[in-house]
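User: Structure please.
Assistant: Input sequence and predicted structure:
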Amino acid sequence: LSGNYPDRVKAFIIRQLQICGREEVVPAIGTFLIIKGIADDAAQALIAIGKVSVAQFRKALPKVKNDLILYRNVLHGLAELADESSKEDFLEALVNEDDECRLLGLWGLTQIGDSSTLEDFLKADQKEKGFSRIKAASFCLQFAEKVQKKDAAKIYRHLQETRTLPEEKYLQKIASSAL
């Protein structure tokens, strides 16, 4: 991976390490999180290897904030690995102009299930439109499953108050039955 080989060769090796790699290959793969064309392969491999990979995503995050594609990729990795130390990064993603980044922020917060983020989570949920609104509602329901009953009730009431379109009646029913 450190040799002077074409990116497609390195990507192939990384995909193989996704299957058989363990902790010892994590730093080598992590260096590719900031390289377009290989970053997706690196992220998939690191996610497959597991939680020991979190540090590589955290290390890459400040380097990719100005590149939307790489930024999404790293946020995805942190969310998938449910990295609790990335709570502030997920909160920051909630105010991003890009709806995919906002959804990744919502998903990251859902994954860690930290009730201290609930108010910011619900505020961000209200901004979403179209498919993002549907996805955000799904994250609301998942978040409600991870927190205590009183916080879950806040989420269900939020869904009752905000999901009032005719095509969102199913969410009203879910929220009502959960309360």
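The chain has a mean pLDDT of 94.
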